[in-house]
Amino acid sequence: MSRDKYAKQSLGSVHARIKQSRVLMVGAGGIGCELLKNLVLTGFGEIHVVDLDTIDLSNLNRQFLFRNEHIKKSKALVAKESAQRFNPNVKVEAYHDNIKDPRFNAAWFKSFDIVFNALDNLEARRHVNKMCIAADVPLIESGTTGFNGQVQVIRKGITPCYDCEPKNPPKSFPVCTIRSTPSQPIHCIVWARSYLFTEIFGTSEDDAPEMDQSESPENAAEIEKLRQEAKALQRIRESMGSAEFPRLVFNKVFKEDIERLRSMEDMWKTRRAPVPLDFDELSEAALGVGDTIVHKDQVVWTLAENFAVFLHSLKRLSDRLEEIRANSHAEMGNAPPILTFDKDDVDTLDFVAASANLRSHIFGIESRSKFDIKQMAGNIIPAIATTNAMTASLCVLEASKVLRDDISNTKSIFLTQLADRVISSGPHGLPNPNCPVCSAAQTTLVVDPSRATLNDLVEGLLRVELGYGEEFSIQSEAGILYDPEEDQNLPKTFGELGLKEDTFITVIDEADDNTKVNLVLSISEKPLDKDAKPIQLPEKPKIGTKAKEAPQIERDGEPPVTNGHGHGKKRGAAEADLLDAEVAKKRGKVAAAPDDDIVILDDAEEGAIVLD
Ligand SMILES: Nc1ncnc2c1ncn2[C@@H]1O[C@H](COP(=O)(O)OP(=O)(O)OP(=O)(O)O)[C@@H](O)[C@H]1O
Ligand SMILES: [Zn+2]
């Protein structure tokens, strides 16, 4: 019996296309392992796998292509080795690399029939989306968070792309809530991790993405005060290692800062005022607390127990940092050593858990167990192997429609546990005509990197040849290259600006009327004849104008479910609840769609039953 017999029977006529197809899978983690197994067993002819990471012990429970002996090895290479054995007729290529590496350029993307995203972060997803739009290759985008999952087919000009709907930025809390008026355990946990821990052992809180530092006239004075408090804490940090250090830190953050807050009476008219803690009183109460308390991670510690763990962990972390400092003395000129919070590093977790609970006590907020705090501080949502497996199988189902050239029948599919049906789907909708990525005009820009300047582009090409007015800006991946107020780069050459082969730059028209859609220029380097212009367009692009008002398009409102929101961060528990509610809402909407029913088609020719 031939190996493909059942695949042929269930897939019907598309089986042959699948066999000849060349596909790319980006990410070999939770979804990726399931997906690669499906692709290999379905018989996709040539599969390329890219993943930048190595295998971690914590991956093994669900990433079943990996075993204990593979820990620390490349995910892409091991996934290839393991999956290849399922079907020797399939060719698998693996790359242990970041998909953003320039070698994976638009021409390389173009060589695939379909691209599958099995990623965990917004940045990489957006990059692959952009490359697939530039290369005009269909993309199957997928993501899971706990029991929720989503699959979306993206095809330039036909479906919305990943960036057609702006994505929610990662959840952040106003700095004043975290530093002055916490009201939930998560506020105290963010304070302990992103303020206290980083001010004592790391770099400044200014870098914490979950703290929204934006100032307004109402909070400017308070923010300035908070800055001064942080500076005072940094001065205390200098006495690390001394016998007085724990008392100094404690008194600063759990007593003096609280007394200052308490004195701001207006703040506490409608809230319970915080009550400072006393070091000596707690020292006495903590005398009987044994060392084993840190192992009781499922019980909520008492105030005295939290105090004891605070002191122990502060000592362990201070000793560690002192030791690193002593050893790194020789390498002068290096940045001073720091510690970073890691949910799996027990010393950092103990410190954050105890500090968060001490603060909760001050503000009359319920304490949490170390186990709970680990979930919240690490933004962990348990990955569910079944959700990944279901999502991966739906990716293949949608891919089969793409290979049948049946994009119009592809669906946006949602998995959710809250609804009466686990899987629901809806039509894919239409591209957003003002989307900065897929509505953009695209063309290649040939430049002589040593001669072509940004001014040649701005004046010679954009204004003279393409009719741009005064108001427009140019952006590269690294940020703004030019706008009317920032023209210092104009005399620089493309070489000096680091704009190499295969990088993209985007021209954003800011004219009030007849605003042009974004123009994406893909750079191609070529030494050009001395007499020729140093910058040329081999093909003049057709640049449409933006729609004045966004038309009412039937499009799925919420952003796709992802198991990471920007910055490679996982979603917090509070966000997960929100997401569940969003998905439930969507589920209600989608379920009402008449074409949501299961259709059984009898494919007479091949004897196959197709479930859509
Ligand atoms: N820019 C990128 N280039 C290549 N691979 C990437 C890139 N960004 C993320 N990935 C990979 O995508 C995969 C996503 O898988 P998954 O969501 O299961 O995460 P994980 O890191 O394996 O698990 P967890 O984060 O839950 O411990 C990871 O293997 C990760 O290395
Ligand atoms: Zn788009």
Automatic annotation (TrEMBL):
Tree of life domain: Eukaryota
Annotated GO MF terms: ATP binding; metal ion binding; SUMO activating enzyme activity; transferase activity
One Pfam family linked to the record: UAE_UbL
Composition bias, Basic and acidic residues: 532-558
GO process terms (BP): protein sumoylation
Residue numbers binding ATP: 27-32, 51, 59-62, 75, 120-125
Pathway: Protein modification; protein sumoylation
InterPro entries: ThiF/MoeB/HesA, ThiF_NAD_FAD-bd, UAE_UbL_dom, Ub-E1_IAD_1, Ub_act_enz_dom_a_sf, Uba2, UBA_E1_SCCH, Ubiquitin-activating_enz
Chain spans, region Disordered: 532-577
Residue ranges occupied by any Ubiquitin-activating enzyme SCCH domain in the UniProt entry: 315-374
Keywords for the protein's UniProt record, in alphabetical order: ATP-binding, Metal-binding, Nucleotide-binding, Nucleus, Transferase, Ubl conjugation pathway, Zinc
One GO CC term, this protein: cytoplasm
Sites where the protein binds Zn(2+): 161, 164, 435, 438
Keyword Transferase: yes
Catalytic site: 176
Chain ranges of the THIF-type NAD/FAD binding fold domain: 16-436
Subcellular location(s) per record: Nucleus
Domain Ubiquitin/SUMO-activating enzyme ubiquitin-like: from-to ranges: 445-526
Quaternary data: Heterodimer.
Family, per entry: Belongs to the ubiquitin-activating E1 family.
Protein name in UniProt: Ubiquitin-activating enzyme E1-like
Organism taxonomic ancestry: Eukaryota, Fungi, Dikarya, Ascomycota, Pezizomycotina
